[in-house]
């Protein structure tokens, strides 16, 4: 009897689970009375909660805003890169380290990801560079980086009333260039008259606040201007002849040494300490490292822009960073020499080059003009060492352990190299007027720049409730699609191609749904070709160029069966017959829509967006039509589709979005003013147990 009762209980429990988990969306909303009792009673309070929210009139559940960016610059050779910016620091913590003097120390670390928010790149044409972008609502600024030749400048610009304007005014750059040219000429002339070969100069700093140069040919020292604060870091910007260093304590100030005038300036407090620093000539940024992290810093204002993690770093204490001539990043720590390679997950993988039992702790390193790697070891009388970056072999050059008989007699906590040399010419291989270093497509004269939505490394998400015009359960997981749009432009900032990257991340519907986009200002004839769409259900009719037939405006159906596309990364390429302005293309994700259950006329759009020429406003339905006016919002203003400028993690089946995300209600009822980043994974924002895994 006991076994029989247990079996009956298990059977009833299994039946309950199957009913609750297997209920699929149906356009007729018909379910059996038993299912209604089991499911609807459980969900009634939560559904009522979200449908009773007091949504302000005019709020369309947008998580982004349209921003018109205007850059004015009369230089024909200036290249601009623009990022979304909000100066957010996270994972702030104090960490214990061993500094370059071998002493236990505590430093502050934090993370930032501004360089992941790359929006577009371009150059002024006739003195103006204009773009209309979509920026997450919680971003209030853009970060602008300007490159002309091998010199970089930057500016942080406020977004005001949907606009961000910047005018470049060269107040000191021309004077500095003239000063640098004169200084280099004098050095070159004096060496020529002395019949001396051009040699490198090693610059060194230490925790005692000493700055000095070292002649690599004989080990002789030259005292330079004392530092504002002792430091374990040094890096040189050759283009502007500045040496940068970070103070060892008290706010960790970023300090700049003027190599021409032998003087120091403190730029700003970095707020973060650590032992490793290098300057990257390719992007004009400082690369700074503590423990198992690498950060980029804008040298003009000490802003921390990005953070990467390092894997496989056996010893995270002490050391330095250095870029080789080919741009490879090397790191030394008290565990030896490593090469750092950035993987597809945006993480640096460390590969050990040297042995793990070196008889010295390499506190610093630098590459000379012959691409030889110089190291310095900690100690009151530091050794200078040369190491091979392939084999890890090494030898003492100067110091107490060398056979040179030359000792420095002081500590070297960091090294960097300066060489007087001619500027290397940057070629323009495809002849489009954009040099190769600034050209994303250096071998294609029709392509030069890229504009990203939401950003170069980020993903946006389109999430749908597919029972329109009936009320759904608002879990927004019936069909969810991650996307990234890349508009490829020529040297005149005109769009020649649109690349669409997408992946279906949720199919909670049980209906066969399709996803399309409409380019509202583009006629079908302006599309040359569409390649990469996945159409298998034989109800979408496309023309020879890949656009949907029967449409007055260009409509592209990306796929017609969401179930078969689940977790499959896909790319669609759209080529235009003639180059178009970014204004003509419109703003991604354009007029995106879902086609429900192979019924071509049943389209679901974002709130207040127009259906395509083949869409039908279904007014006559069996049951309650929640959208009689066809604006894709209920009478309480809830949408059937939402566009989120983030990789959105959808709720579990039949869990309303406001139960999975704690601040959704605050955001919706405030008209988007409160918690505009409600969908992120910040502490306390999500109920992880209610999200799809």
UniProtKB/TrEMBL annotation:
The keyword Ribonucleoprotein does not apply. Gene3D superfamilies: YVTN repeat-like/Quinoprotein amine dehydrogenase (2.130.10.10). Residues 1-23 form the signal peptide. Residues 420-442 are annotated as: Disordered. Pfam families: DUF4842 (PF16130). The keyword Glycosyltransferase does not apply. Residues 422-442 have a biased composition (Acidic residues). InterPro entries: DUF4842, LruC_dom, WD40/YVTN_repeat-like_dom_sf. This is LruC domain-containing protein. It comes from Croceitalea rosinachiae. The lineage of its organism: Bacteria, Pseudomonadati, Bacteroidota, Flavobacteriia, Flavobacteriales.
């Amino acid at each position: 009897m006991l076994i029989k009762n247990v079996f009956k209980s298990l059977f009833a429990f299994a039946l309950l689970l199957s009913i609750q988990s297997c209920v699929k969306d149906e356009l007729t909303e018909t379910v059996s009375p038993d299912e209604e009792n089991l499911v609807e009673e459980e969900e009634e309070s939560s559904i009522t909660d979200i449908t009773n929210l007091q949504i302000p009139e005019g709020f369309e559940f947008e998580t982004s805003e349209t921003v018109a960016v205007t850059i004015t610059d009369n230089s024909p050779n200036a290249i601009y890169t623009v990022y979304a910016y909000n100066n957010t620091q996270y994972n702030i913590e104090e960490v214990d380290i061993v500094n370059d003097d071998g002493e236990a120390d505590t430093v502050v670390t934090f993370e930032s990801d501004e360089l992941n928010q790359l929006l577009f790149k371009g150059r002024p044409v006739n003195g103006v560079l204009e773009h209309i972008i979509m920026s997450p609502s919680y971003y209030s600024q853009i970060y602008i980086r300007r490159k002309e030749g091998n010199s970089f400048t930057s500016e942080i610009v406020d977004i005001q009333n949907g606009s961000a304007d910047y005018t470049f005014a060269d107040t000191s750059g021309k004077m500095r260039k003239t000063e640098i040219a004169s200084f280099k000429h004098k050095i070159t002339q004096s060496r020529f008259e002395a019949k001396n070969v051009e040699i490198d100069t090693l610059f060194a700093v230490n925790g005692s606040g000493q700055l000095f140069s070292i002649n690599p040919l004989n080990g002789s020292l030259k005292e330079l201007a004392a530092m504002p604060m002792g430091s374990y870091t040094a890096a040189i910007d050759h283009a502007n002849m500045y040496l940068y260093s970070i103070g060892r304590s008290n706010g960790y100030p970023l300090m700049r040494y003027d190599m021409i005038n032998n003087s120091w300036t403190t730029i700003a407090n970095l707020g973060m300490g650590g032992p490793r620093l290098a300057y990257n000539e390719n992007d004009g940024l400082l690369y700074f490292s503590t423990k198992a992290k690498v950060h980029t810093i804008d040298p003009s204002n000490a802003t921390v822009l990005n953070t990467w993690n390092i894997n496989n770093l056996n010893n995270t204490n002490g050391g330095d960073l250095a870029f080789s001539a080919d741009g490879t990043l090397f790191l030394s720590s008290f565990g030896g020499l490593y090469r750092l390679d950035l993987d597809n997950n945006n993480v640096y993988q460390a590969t050990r080059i040297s042995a793990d039992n070196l008889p010295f702790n390499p506190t610093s390193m630098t590459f000379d003009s012959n691409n030889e790697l110089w190291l310095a070891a900690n100690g009151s009388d530091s050794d200078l060492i040369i190491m091979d970056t392939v084999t890890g072999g090494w030898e003492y050059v100067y110091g107490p352990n060398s056979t040179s008989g030359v000792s420095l007699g002081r500590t070297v906590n960091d090294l960097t190299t300066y060489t007087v040399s001619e500027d290397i010419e940057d070629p323009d291989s495809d002849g489009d007027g954009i040099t190769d270093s600034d050209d994303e497509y250096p071998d294609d004269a029709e392509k030069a720049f890229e504009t990203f939505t939401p950003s170069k490394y980020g993903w946006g998400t389109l999430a749908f409730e597919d029972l329109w015009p009936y009320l759904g359960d608002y879990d927004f997981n019936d069909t969810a699609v991650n996307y990234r749009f890349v508009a490829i432009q020529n040297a005149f900032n005109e769009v020649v191609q649109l690349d669409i990257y997408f992946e279906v991340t949720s199919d909670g519907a049980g209906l066969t749904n399709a996803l399309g986009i409409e380019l509202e200002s583009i006629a079908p004839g302006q599309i040359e070709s569409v390649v990469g769409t996945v159409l298998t259900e034989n109800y979408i009719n496309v023309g020879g160029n890949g656009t949907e037939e029967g449409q007055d405006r260009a409509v592209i159906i990306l796929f017609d069966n969401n179930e078969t596309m689940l977790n499959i990364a896909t790319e669609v390429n759209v080529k235009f017959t003639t180059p178009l302005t970014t204004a003509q293309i419109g703003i991604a994700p354009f007029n995106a829509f879902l086609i429900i259950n192979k019924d071509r006329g049943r389209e679901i759009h974002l709130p207040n967006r127009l259906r395509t020429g083949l869409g039908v406003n279904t007014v006559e339905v069996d049951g309650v039509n929640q959208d009689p006016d066809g604006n894709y919002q209920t009478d309480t203003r809830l949408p059937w589709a939402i566009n989120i400028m983030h990789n959105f993690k959808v709720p579990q089946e039949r869990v309303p979005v406001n139960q999975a995300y704690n601040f959704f209600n605050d955001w919706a009822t405030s008209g988007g003013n409160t918690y505009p980043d409600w969908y992120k994974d910040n502490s306390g924002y999500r109920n992880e147990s209610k999200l799809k895994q």
